[in-house]
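DM from R.C. (forwarded with permission)

"hey, sorry to bug you on a friday — could you get me a structure for this? deadline for the figure draft is monday and I only need the backbone to look sensible"
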Amino acid sequence: ATSDIMRNVYETLITIDEDHQFQPMLAESYNISEDGTEITFHLRQGVLFHNGKEMASEDVVASMKRWQELSSMGRAQFADATFEATDDYTVVLTLPQPLSTALSVLSANMGAFPAIMPKEVAEAATETGVEEYIGTGPFEFTEWKQDVHILLTKFADYQSRDEEPSGLAGSKEALVDKIYFKFVTDSSTRVAGLLSGEYDMAHAVPWDNLEQLEASSDVVNHIVPGSTQVLTFNKKKGIFTDLKAREAVLAALSMEDIMQGAFGNAAFYTLNHNLVMPHLEGLFYSDYGKDKYNQDQPEKGAQLLEEAGYVGEEIVLLSTRDYEEVYNASVIVQQRLEEIGLKVKLDVVDWATFLEKKEDENAFDINIVGFGPQPEPTSYLFLMKGPHSGWTDDDEFHDLVAEFRSQPTLEDTKEVYDEIMKWVADHVPFIKIADYNRIFSTRDSVQNFRFVDGPILWNVSKTE
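My reply, with the result:
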C-alpha cells in the first residue's frame, strides 16, 4: 500500500531495470572502490523537489541517515555505515566491510525503501514518519482522505533522465494530471467498478473473478508476481521450540493441496523451495532443501510429533480474512495438522491485530502470511534478529548471513547461499509454502501499463 503509491512521489539514488540490473536514478553515476568498502554517488544537478528546492548532497545524506536508523533493512545491513557529502553533488557511502547486498537494498522500491527527501523534512521526522511527503518523482502528493483516497498530481517541473524507460529506470513522464488511489476493501465492489469503468485499474483482484473479467473486452488482466507464502513458527515459546515438532509439520504438509485450496488454479502459484521468488532464481538458486519440500507424508509427521513429546496442548494458528489467500491456506493447514494429532485453534483477526499479535510470543504458535518480493534473500523479516515474528536468532545462522553480505559482489555469494539453504533445511526455522501471483487489471483505455515489483504509473496514458 505504501510503496505502490509512493514510488510515484519519491525516488532513490539507484534503481532496477526490467532485467533487475542496477541503474542510476537520482545519481548521475556511481562507482565502487576496489576493496568494495566505498560507493561514491555523483548526483544529478538541477533535480527539483516538489517544494521547488534543488536536490543536493545534504538532502541525500539526511534522507539516508533517517532510512538507516528507522527502516528494518537500513538497521540490519547499514547500521555501521556512514553517508558523507564531499561536495554539493557527491555523496560517499563508507562501509566497514564489503556488502554484497548494498546495491540490491539501495535500489529496492518496496516497503520502507530509501527515498530521497529534503533535508529539513528528513530531520524533522519522528519514529512514526515524516510530516510532509515531498519527493522528486513525476507525481506529487496532494491529498489524503483517510480510508477514502490518496490523490497525486502531475509535477510540472519534474526532471527526467534521458535513457529509454526500462523497469523502474530511464525516462519518466507524468502523462495524466491526477491519479486517485481509492481504498475499496470489498473485492466485489472493486470488480464491479472496474467493469463499469468507474475505476481504470484494480489491484488485488480475486482469483475467482478472473474468468468474469476475461469475458470483458474492456479489461486487460496482468498476472504479476505477488508474494511468498511462509509458515512461521513461534520459536521462543511452546512446542515449536523443538526441532522435531517443526519437522513434523514440514513432513505432513502438501504444498500442492495448500495452494490449490487457496488459489484453485496452478497458473496462480509456483511450488518452489527456494528462498527467492522464481523471477530472481537466475541470481540465487540452491538445491538444498528440495528433497524435504512438499513431502505430503502425514504418517511421518505423526511419528515425529510423537517423538517431540506432544501431549495434546492447544496450538494457536494465527490468521486473517483481510487476505483471503492467507485464510484459505490456514484452514487447509489446520485440517492437515489435526490429521497428525495436533489440537489446532484457528485465531482469525483483522489485519492490524494480526500484525500486532504476530510479534507477541504469547499470542500464537504458527502464523501464515505472504511476504512481497525482496531484492535479495537475506532481507526477509522472518530471517532477521530482533522483534520479528518467528525469532530466528541462532548465531550460526546469522554468521552465515553476515558472510553472505560481506562478499564483494552478489556473484560471490552463491556458495554461502548454499550454506544458508542447507542450514534452513536442517533447522526448519520456518516453512516456505510457495510463491503466488496476483492479478492487476486495467481498462483497455490504459496505455503502456507495466509492472515491476508493483505498478508503474509514469509513462502511462488514458484514452477517452
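R.C.: lifesaver. The mean pLDDT is 93.
me: no worries. The longest strand covers residues 219-233.
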